[in-house]
Design a protein that fits this description.
single chain; Rossmann fold; 6-stranded mixed sheet
């Protein structure tokens, strides 16, 4: 009579289960390390990119010879931009001025009163663009205005932090046109005081994020909306002369 020795199956199964759990735990720890390192690297790159962005803005200066332009475009976002653009126009810079992205409820008379500019300047040489809803819309609205008038060199007036994205979008919409920067500065980014200002810090970081997304979108060739009011169903003129 033969006797067979039975294996302790429960113990074997328990050992196999323990080994599997150990392997899973090691894989989990390894994956967690990879995720952590990747996150740290990503955050580091974002911070480095942000400070590089602010350094670039801090070095922005008005174009050296603004008189050598055909026209001026001011991107709305504050009367200081419009004031500066109008002052340049009255100094003989450019033939005309487009104020892009004006709210439809804002009339030419209201802009004239707010800026204190001579009526003759508005009547002869200023156009209001009511179509743009955002910076992409500014670029497309400006592109139509440029094509209509045959300009090739444009002075761009907007805030310094908004300038990199504005030039990027304008160049995409009008690749054959030369755009020169005339940044309007609210804060001195060459000092470290802005770092302690939560409003300035938030504004700059949001703009850096938008600029990064715009660069990624243009690099990938992704399509986006035109940013024009007409495409949203609200039919308004692309640009209207101020009267």
């Amino acid at each position: 009579m033969s006797v067979e020795t039975a294996l302790p199956e429960p113990a074997t199964q328990a050992a196999a289960k323990t080994d599997a759990m150990d392997r899973l735990r090691r894989v989990g720890h390894h994956g967690l390390r990879i995720v952590t390192i990747t996150a740290i690297a990503g955050i580091t790159l974002v911070i480095m990119g942000f400070f590089r962005f602010t350094d670039t803005i801090a070095e922005l200066k008005p174009a050296g010879a603004p008189a050598q332009v055909d026209a001026i475009v001011a991107l709305t976002g504050g009367y200081q931009r419009i004031d500066q653009a109008l002052a340049l126009l009255e100094q003989g810079v450019g033939q005309r001025l487009l104020i892009s992205g004006v709210n439809p409820s804002t009339t030419g008379a209201a802009l004239r009163r707010a800026t204190g500019t001579k009526p003759a300047t508005f009547d002869c040489c200023v156009d209001i663009g009511y179509e743009a809803l955002d910076t992409i819309g500014n670029a497309n609205e400006t592109a139509g205005w440029i094509r209509q008038r045959g300009y090739s060199r444009i002075l761009v007036v907007t805030n310094n932090y908004h300038m990199p994205r504005s030039l990027l979008e304008l160049s995409q919409a009008s690749p054959d046109v030369t755009f020169l920067a005339y940044p309007v500065t609210h804060a001195d980014l060459k000092t470290d005081t802005w770092i302690t200002d939560p409003v300035a810090l938030r504004t700059l970081f949001v703009e850096y994020a938008k600029y990064s997304i715009a660069r990624l979108r243009n690099w990938s060739g992704a399509r986006t909306s035109s940013g024009l009011r007409a495409d949203s169903g609200d039919k308004l003129p692309v640009a209207a002369s101020l009267q």
